[in-house]
Amino acid sequence: MAVTEVEGPPSEAPAKRGLLRYNSPLAQVSLLGIICFCCPGMFNALSGLGGGGQVDNTTADNANTALYAFFAVFGVLGGAAHNLLGPRVTLLLGALTYPLYAGSFLYYNHHPSQTFPVAAGALLGAGAGFLWAAQGAIMTSYPPPNRRGTYISLFWCLFNLGGVLGGLLPFSFNYNSGGKPASVNDGTYIAFMAFMLLGAALTVLVLPPVRIVRDDGTKATRVTFSSPATEGAEILKLFANWKMLLVLPAAWASNFFYTYQFNNVNGALFTLRTKGLNNVFYWGAQMLGSAGIGYFLDFGFASRRKRGLFGVLVVALIGTAIWGGGLANQLKYNHGELANRIDFKDGHRYAGPFLLYFSYGLLDAMFQSLIYWIIGALANDSQILSRYVGFYKGVQSAGAAVAWQVDRRKASLLSQLFVNWGLMTISYPLLALLVFLAVKDEDNSVSSVEDGKEKDSKLSAPTSFH
Question: Going by C-beta distance under 8 Å and a sequence separation of 6 or more, which residues neighbour residue 194?
Answer without folding.
Answer: none
